[in-house]
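Intended use. Records like the one below are meant for learning the mapping from a protein sequence to its folded structure. Do not use them to infer anything beyond what is encoded.
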Amino acid sequence: MTYSEGHFDAIAEDYDYWKKKNAYYHENLKALYGSYIPKGERVLEIGCGTGDILARLEPREGRGVDVSEEMVEIARQKYAGKPNLQFEREDIFESTKSFGYPYIFLADVLEHVGDLGNFVQQLAARTDSGSTVVISVANPLWEPVLMLAEKLHMKMPEGPHTRDSIQETERIFRACGFTLAERGFRLLVPKKIPGSDWINARFHRSPLLRRLGFVVYWVLKR
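Structure written out for the chain above:
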């Protein structure tokens, strides 16, 4: 069993409940990936959970993989009527075969992999030259807030995780052969409150506020 497999198997039944509880964040995450991955493409999601982001992208061919068989089974049931979507239980360490997809994305996955350097190395080794990889994580600066929210039952239980710094994560990306095409921040206010849309559309213009965004994302090229 991998670093987080048992945790996500255990919370799979309540996973969609937590996503609905924090719908503002998850809808913005879908919009983020939609802005970098065009509709009608061939897309791979690593750490697909129950499949909602991949489905929203409307790929011509979408494959979602996850270490949690329970998550994958829920995704299969939810999207059984979508023949363009395929969901499978897979740990990327279990194969060396090329992924073969021009677009790959990982949402809230890196903090759960255990050994980030080894994981990114495997990711790079299986990513074709010319592919685009889009990755997002919660900003490490928000960790105290996230842990408090979990204790107050305001968010999904995080389970085993490690939040590497932005600088260390980017060092690993480059060391493993990725080119950093873009880094950005989203959602200074990750909950829907009066004014949140206005703030979130503008805060990144400020050099002082930009790095405080709740979401950190990268666009990588291989």
